[in-house]
Structures are given as C-alpha cells and as structure tokens.
Amino acid sequence: xxxxxxxxxxxxxxxxxxxxxxxxxxxxxxxxxxxxxxxxxxxxxxxxxxxxxxxxxxxxxxxxxxxxxxxxxxxxxxxxxxxxxxxxxxxxxxxxxxxxxxxxxxxxxxxxxxxxxxxxxxxxxxxxxxxxxxxxxxxxxxxxxxxxxxxxxxxxxxxxxxxxxxxxxxxxxxxxxxxxxxxxxxxxxxxxxx
Length: 194
Known about the structure:
Elements: E1 28-33, E2 42-47, E3 53-59, E4 67-72, E5 77-83, E6 88-92, E7 101-105, E8 114-119, E9 127-134, E10 139-144, E11 149-155, E12 169-174, H1 180-193
Antiparallel strand pairs: 1-2, 1-12, 2-3, 3-4, 4-5, 5-6, 6-7, 7-8, 8-9, 9-10, 10-11, 11-12
C-alpha cells in the first residue's frame, strides 16, 4: 500500500528524525489534537512542549479503521496498527509481520478499573502494561507490570478561565523510560475502542 508523503506542515525550523523517549530525565508532555492537518482526513496531530510537530496520523479513508499508520513529523511510518477481531496489533513501520505488542479490551467484570491490557506478541499472553481510568473523560494512566506509571492522559488546561478544549485536545505525559511512539499508538487504539 503506497502512502502519500508530505513535507513538514508545522512552521518551526527543525523536524526530528524520529521521536525518541525523553532523554533528559524528565517527562515528555505532548499535546494531542484529535484532528488531521489535512483537509478531509481523520487523524491526530501531536505537538511537543515547544510547539513542534512530533507525530501525525492522517487516515485518508475515514471509513477504514482496520489499518492506521503513526508517522513522525516528516511523514515517515513509525508504527502500523492493525485491527483484528478482538484485539489490535502494533507493528514496526509499515510491516505486517512480527507484531511488537497487542492490545485487548478488558472483559473482566470484576476488574472495572482496567480499560485494556497491552501484551507481548504471540506465546506470551501476560499483560506487560495495563491502562486504568476513563479514556472518554481523558483521564487515564498506563502502568507497567511492576505498577509503575509510564504514561498518563489528562485534559488540556487553558490559560484563559472559562475556555475549554473539550475532548479533542488533551495532554499525553510520557515518562522518560517509555517510548513516546508506543504511548501514542496506545492512545490511537483507545480512541478506536472508546
């Protein structure tokens, strides 16, 4: 499948090659906008704290949610999300072999705090990460298998009192030891689920 590559759409001068985990030891605070920068496309646009474009998702076929590609600011494919019957698989680049991880909705009625389980690929069904909270309210956190918080979704605060962004603009806070691209892929899957 050929993807259309676009040049940079954000006015800042530099475009990162790829979005690495935060390397300065502090959490990366990303602003996620549930809107494509392209006309007539569904998607996401993600900016860092400096206002630089970090990630984008431009779904040219809004009716096709079975295949979604997470791109860096330059339009290079980072991760591909493919929906299966009861789960979502995440692959490197635009490949369809050897998934990095899978995401399944929690179906245990006794565990109402847990939204989804993020698991290793085939053969290792144990949860590597769990997401708890409410994605609909943009208030949830991701924990690793040792119950350390590695990412969090929060509503975006405004500088002007009485002005609200709604649920289309929110913050994704990623801890330095966690990959920002993986956390964004999980946000996209959460959006598909809820």
